[in-house]
Amino acid sequence: MLLAVREKSIALFDGMTVEDLDHHHDALSNSIGMLLGHFVALDLVFIARVLESRRVERSELGKWESGLQLRTFGRSSLKGRSPEVYREALIASRGKLLLALEGRDDQWLDQLASFLPYANQGAKNRFLVFHQIEDELRHQGQIIWQRNRLPHFTRLLDERGELNSVSAGASSKCDVRP
C-alpha cells in the first residue's frame, strides 16, 4: 500500500509546472507543492520516530522541514520547486521508508507505539503505518480538487466532467521501490 499510494501521488502532478505546484486556490489553502513536501517530511519523521524510536533531527528534514507546518511556514518556503525536485524527493523518501521497514513482521506491527502521543493512547505500530497511508490518501483528494481547478487542467475535462487520462497523469509510470 505504501508503494501504490506514493506512485499515485507522483502521477497526480504529472504535467504540472512550477506555477501549478505553487498555486493557492484561496488564502487558506495549501498548494500542491506544500502537500507534496508534507509527504516527504512525514516519511522522514516516520523513519526516525516509529522505526528508530528517536526524535528527528532538523538536519535530516533539510529543505522539507516546512512540510510539517502546512498553512504557515510551508506557504513561504515550499515554493519555486520544479516537479522533478518533488518527484525525486518523493521517490527517495519512500524508498528510505520501505528499506527501513524491511524485516518488520506482524509481531512488530502488533507492538504498542513507543512515542507520544500514540504511546499513551494504546496505538499499535499497525495503526501508525495505516495513518501514514491514510494521511497521504486524504491529501491526494486535496491535490485532485486543486488540480481540477487549475485553468489548463480544467479545459482537459471530458464530457462527464472527469479529467481525461492525459491530465490525470495516467500515462505517468514510476517505481519508488528501493
Number of domains: 1
Count all strands and give the number.
0
Question: Helical percent range?
Answer: 40-55%
Shape call:
globular
Helix-strand makeup class: mainly alpha
Approximately how much beta-strand content do the residues carry? under 5%
Query: Which quaternary structure do these chains form?
Result: single chain
- CATH architecture, by name, is Up-down Bundle
The major pleated sheet works out as: none
What integer is the average pLDDT? 85
Order of helices and strands: HHHHHHHHH
> How many H/I helices?
9
Euclidean distance between termini CA atoms: 15 Å
State the CATH superfamily name. dinb family like domain
- What is the rounded Rg? 17 Å
CATH structural class: Mainly Alpha
The CATH topology turns out to be Four Helix Bundle (Hemerythrin (Met), subunit A)
Report low-confidence residues grouped into runs of 5 or more: 165-172
Q: What's the structural blueprint in terms of helices and strands?
A:
Elements: H1 2-12, H2 18-22, H3 32-51, H4 58-61, H5 73-77, H6 83-101, H7 106-109, H8 125-147, H9 151-154
Question: In words, what does this structure look like?
Answer:
The structure is a single chain. With 178 residues, the chain is mainly alpha-helical. The protein has one domain: Four Helix Bundle (Hemerythrin (Met), subunit A), CATH 1.20.120.450. 53% of the residues lie in helices and 0% in strands. The protein has helices at 2-12, 18-22, 32-51, 58-61, 73-77, 83-101, 106-109, 125-147, 151-154. It is globular. 26% of the residues are buried.
